[in-house]
Design goal:
The complex is a heterodimer of chains A (617) and B (358). Chain A has a single domain, classed as Cytochrome C Oxidase, Chain A (Up-down Bundle), CATH 1.20.210. A two-stranded antiparallel ribbon of chain A has the order 1-2. In chain A, strands 3-4 form a two-stranded antiparallel ribbon. By secondary structure, chain A is mainly alpha-helical. Chain A has helices spanning 8-13, 36-41, 46-76, 86-89, 100-136, 144-163, 194-223, 236-267, 291-325, 332-345, 361-373, 375-389, 398-420, 423-429, 433-463, 469-495, 515-545, 611-614, and strands at residues 93-94, 97-98, 278-279, 282-283. In chain A, 59% of the residues lie in helices and 1% in strands. Chain B is α+β, with helices and mostly antiparallel strands and 358 residues long. Chain B has a domain at 164-357: Immunoglobulin-like. Chain B contains 10 helices and 10 strands. Chain B has helices at residues 2-31, 40-67, 78-111, 127-156, 207-210, 266-273, 304-313, 317-320, 322-336, 350-357; strands at residues 164-171, 174-179, 213-215, 218-221, 226-232, 237-241, 246-250, 256-260, 280-284, 296-302. In chain B, the strands form 2 sheets. Chain B has a 5-stranded mixed β-sheet with strand order 3-2-1-5-8, with no helix packed on it. Chain B has a 5-stranded mixed β-sheet with strand order 4-10-9-6-7. The chains are: A mainly alpha (617), B alpha+beta (358). At the A-B interface, helix 5, strand 3, helix 9, helix 10 and helix 11 of A face helix 1, helix 2, helix 3, helix 4 and strand 7 of B.
């Protein structure tokens, strides 16, 4: 009896075995009251853990956005006084000016926070956790306990990273890519002292969190699918989370090794990345190391990482576009195929970040070739999304708008990747604002749009209430226009060759022409950032006071919408529904309604069954 | 007091927004629009999509045209002309894809907005068009890769034998430059020998280094291939010369290189730009610390004859620092017990050597 549904004790013990689709589930209402601590803090319920990831992610996004507003102030008005920020930044304002090392710390922490803490943990942590069990028809993750550990390692990692913002020597300042020797030598920049140590410790904890989560996601998708839920009936969200988890599992350990070797170089006198260095009046004894080795290790994670960030967004956008266009996603199998193609290729393109590092030019040729191949599956995805809209019957929910925005931004940012992936063109554009504009559109803003789309779409299932649509519309249009106003002109600055991570360009005649445009970008960025508080208000207000949601407010087909509004641990009060059809039966000719949920058997929909489905009646 | 005033105004504004928000909720409840599945907002958003496409597209086109002149750093190298052409032709290709897809995206969004009583077209897949739109990007990509690969191999191929050689070394936070002198050979350096005087770490027991000279700015001759030997003595830097479309990391412990052929002298570029103060600049383009943004050096492109003259006027490092030379001489005397020949003044032979190098 107990084998069918993980009792509370079993889930906590991490040995929960879920066999879906069988009887004897009724006793799950019987278990004893959970304490507040068990229910909301050290919870093993995937839904609670998802919310923990989401709210921590929102916290980090505010921090990351604030940092960017600070350095945009510097870039927009390099000559102005920053005296008024002294109460906030203290000694980092020197004689009315922002300390240049602190400027570098700002960009470093902005990148680290946004890429890892918001768009990896906040995005995939939230939605992989929330949606995998609900959409595949499982009571919980394979191991609720590991899942809980995953969040708490992330929390610990967050605490360490956050504390590094306040230490005497400042947070890490060698760029989010922490290339040694700069990141290895406190003599080179003060952020490479304790700040860098905390950064490395925090990232090590973060990687543990990712691996605990990833193993769990993969196991759950493989083992705990409900009856009838074959891999070819999985919603695209699940496919994307599944492949994302595999990418993370294979690539994060490599970053861990890079971090470990860097720790050795920093603290134990090894020379993995250090060689022939004379700094601060002293020749170091390190010889034979290679800074380029670090870059290979870093980008072996770093490039899959951008797909770790974007693929969950792709999956959710596919789902939301289909639901709100009231049409099946176009080319379901091609969408899975392109996700597989992207996942595979993402492991063999990393060195396109390194064309001009002195790496053998032949390697550059190989990586250019592989990089430009990856544009093909990406293009297929875009065409399929467009075809999904074609002849749809579109409802503009906020989630739908953000999904359309996602596609728009993904196109805008993805296309310039074709330029940057060309090694000959990258010679000029490497490390300029063209790169900054490119990745902020294609992985930064797009993934953020996927995140928002997901929050607006699944909010009713998360909290049993609706978010306010009007505020959602204002939030969308302000953000969408804001993002374009920031990042389109940034390409111009990049084509003109402006280097990134510059405190000011005023020292160069070559980079003197775009002072006004930089002001404009700064204004747009700061306004768009403040616009996010509309979302934050809407989010927290709606948790408590939003309109009550119905069970399936978007008339959607996937399994999570068959659960009750008040969701307990275990997800379905009775039996787990079995699955009979693919997740995109929208507007099927002959069907009574314009959607047929996955758990409706063909025998009940004889009027709409296609010829090959007749056999399955 | 002003701070308090500002805070008060902000607080009042928030209260006003809060009230407006409540009001909006109440009106939507009374008008019944909160319970309708698809209300007027749907139409408004569809129209906004169209407006965004038209107004946004126009604004983009205008701003691009307006900034176009400013976004092209004038080109002064042979390969720069080729990559520039490739850049803009690739931009046209992706521009077409951009416009097509964005127009379809927002046009479909507008055109296929919800209408009561209409049902979406059930269209799950179509193998033929899927094959077509997989092949088209694949073919376009293949063409772009091929063009890029050809140019890339040409640029990164071996430098011509008669290239003018010089060494650029990055350090926190400036550039140092070294020329090989009349023998056209850069002498051995060793980072352990670096000090305040010997910034390069010259090992003057190596005869090749005795005539090497350093310079405060980079001089290169127009129309001749120039081979930059690049290294760093502390952290990563990157040699970035936007006008020559040159970029290469400076890596401690791993010398790198890049060769290019300048096509316009500084004077010619000044005339072309109408800016008598124009200078080619070398910037650092890899984060290296506090002074990263100010790590600059001027580059002067001379007519070949002027270059030869400039080259002839330079005094070698050893000549300028006889103490350093002497200390090496002492050491080598002690070690080898065999005096090396002190080179005669280099200057006399230099013009011939410099010419030979052209």
């Amino acid at each position: 009896m107990a084998a069918n549904f993980p009792t509370h004790e079993q889930v906590q013990g991490g040995i929960g075995v879920t066999e879906p689709g069988h009887a004897h589930d009724a006793h799950h209402d019987e278990h004893h009251e959970q304490s507040f601590l068990q229910k909301y803090v050290f919870s093993t319920d995937h839904k609670v853990i998802a919310k923990q990831f989401l709210i921590t992610g929102i916290f980090w996004a505010i921090i990351g956005g604030t940092l960017s507003s600070l350095f945009r102030l510097q870039l927009g008005w390099p000559e102005s006084t920053m005296e008024w920020l002294t109460p906030f930044l203290g000694k980092w304002i020197e004689a009315g000016k922002l300390n240049p090392e602190f400027y570098l710390a700002l960009v470093t922490m902005h990148g680290t926070i946004m890429v890892f803490f918001v768009l990896t943990a906040g995005l995939s942590g939230t939605f992989s956790n929330f949606l995998i069990p609900l959409q595949i028809g499982a009571r919980d993750m394979a191991s609720g306990f590991m899942n809980m550990l995953s969040y708490w390692f992330f929390f610990l990692s967050s605490v360490v990273m956050f504390s590094s913002l306040f230490i005497e020597t400042g947070p890490a300042a060698a760029g989010w890519t922490i290339y040694p020797p700069l990141s290895a030598l406190p003599q080179a920049i003060s952020g490479s002292g304790a700040g860098q140590t905390l950064w490395l410790v925090s990232m090590a904890l973060f990687i543990i969190s990712q691996l605990l989560g990833g193993v769990n996601y993969i196991t759950t998708v493989i083992n705990l699918r409900t009856q009838g839920m074959s891999m070819s009936k999985l919603p695209l969200t699940i496919w994307s989370f599944f492949l994302t988890a595999i990418l993370g599992l294979l690539s994060f350990p490599v970053l861990f090794s890079a971090a470990l070797l860097l720790i050795f170089d920093r603290s134990f006198g090894t020379s993995f990345f250090l060689s022939d260095i004379y700094i601060a009046g002293q020749a170091l004894s390190n010889t034979g190391g290679s800074p380029i080795l670090f870059q290979h290790l870093f980008w072996f994670l770093g490039h899959p990482e951008v797909y770790i960030v974007i693929m969950p967004a792709m999956g959710m956008v596919s789902e939301i576009l289909a639901t709100n266009a009231r049409k099946p996603i176009f080319g379901y199998r091609a969408m899975i195929g392109s996700l597989l193609g992207i996942s595979l290729l993402s492991f063999i393109v990393w060195a396109h970040h390194m064309f001009v590092t002195g790496m053998n030019p032949f390697l550059g040729s190989v990586f250019m070739f592989l990089t430009l191949i990856i544009a093909v599956p990406s293009a297929v995805k875009v065409f399929n999304w467009l075809a999904t809209l074609w002849r749809g019957n579109i409802r503009f929910t906020t989630a739908m708008l953000f999904s359309i925005g996602f596609v728009s931004l993904f196109i805008a940012g993805g296309l310039t990747g074709i330029i940057l992936g060309n090694a000959a063109l990258d010679i000029q554009l490497h490390n300029t604002y063209f790169v900054v504009a490119h990745f902020h559109l294609v992985m930064g803003s797009s993934a953020f749009f996927g995140l928002w789309a997901g929050v607006y779409h699944w909010f009713p299932k998360m909290f049993g209430r609706m978010m306010d649509e009007k505020l959602g519309y204002i939030h969308f249009w302000l953000t969408f226009i804001g993002v374009y106003l920031v990042f389109l002109p940034m390409h111009y600055v990049g084509i003109a060759g402006f280097p990134r991570r510059y405190y000011a360009w005023t020292g160069f005649d070559t980079f003197s022409q775009f002072a006004d445009l930089n002001k404009f970008i700064s204004v747009a960025a700061i306004v768009a950032f403040f616009g996010q508080f509309i979302f934050i208000f809407n989010f927290f207000y709606s948790i408590f006071r939003g309109r009550r949601a119905t069970e399936n407010p978007w008339n959607s087909t996937t399994l999570e919408w068959t659960t009750p509004v008040e969701l307990g641990h275990g997800n379905w009060p009775g039996e787990i529904p079995a699955v009979h059809r693919w997740p995109y039966d929208y507007s099927k000719p002959g069907a009574a309604e314009d959607f047929i949920p996955q758990n409706v058997p063909y025998s009940q929909t004889q009027s709409s069954n296609l010829p090959y489905e007749k056999e399955m009646e | 007091m002003t701070t308090l005033g500002i805070l008060l105004v902000l607080a009042l504004l928030l209260v006003v927004f809060g009230l407006l928000f409540r009001l909006q909720i109440l009106t939507s409840i009374f008008s019944g629009s909160s319970t309708r599945e698809v209300g007027t907002s749907n139409r408004v958003n569809a129209i906004l999509c169209l407006i965004f496409l038209v107004v946004g597209g126009a604004a983009f086109a205008w701003s691009f045209a307006d900034s176009y002149d400013k976004m092209n750093p004038p080109i002064a190298s042979v390969h720069g002309l080729a990559t520039e052409k490739m850049f803009w032709s690739s931009m046209i290709v992706i521009g077409i894809a951009f416009v097509l897809t964005q127009v379809l995206l927002f046009w479909y969004s507008y055109k296929y907005q919800h209408q009561d009583g209409r049902r979406a077209f059930f269209f799950p897949h179509n193998n033929k068009i899927e094959v077509i739109w997989t092949l088209i990007p694949a073919i376009v990509m293949a063409a772009l890769v091929f063009a890029g690969w050809k140019e890339w191999t040409r640029i990164t191929g071996p430098a011509p034998k008669d290239s003018v050689v010089l060494e650029v070394m990055g350090k926190q936070f400036n550039w140092l430059v070294r020329y090989p002198g009349r023998d056209q050979k850069l002498g051995v350096v060793n980072y352990r020998l670096i000090d305040a005087t010997n910034e390069f770490g010259f090992d003057l027991s190596d005869q090749n280094g005795v005539d090497d000279f350093t310079a405060g700015e980079i001089h290169v001759p127009k129309g001749h291939p120039v081979l930059l030997r690049i290294r760093s003595r502390d952290v990563l830097h990157a040699v970035y010369m936007p006008n020559f479309r040159v970029q290469m990391y400076a890596v401690p412990g791993m010398p790198t290189k890049f060769w290019f052929t300048p096509t316009k002298t500084t004077d010619e570029m000044r005339a072309q730009m109408g800016n008598p103060n124009f200078n080619y600049e070398l910037a650092c383009n890899q984060i290296c610390g506090r002074g990263h943004f100010a790590m600059k050096m001027s580059i002067v492109v001379d007519e070949p004859d002027d270059y030869v003259n400039w080259f002839a006027q330079q005094k070698s490092f050893s000549e300028q620092n006889p103490d350093v030379l002497a200390s090496f001489k002492q050491k080598s005397d002690k070690l080898v017990e065999k005096a090396t020949v002190v080179p005669t003044t280099a200057a006399a032979v230099v013009p011939a050597a410099a010419k030979a190098s052209l």
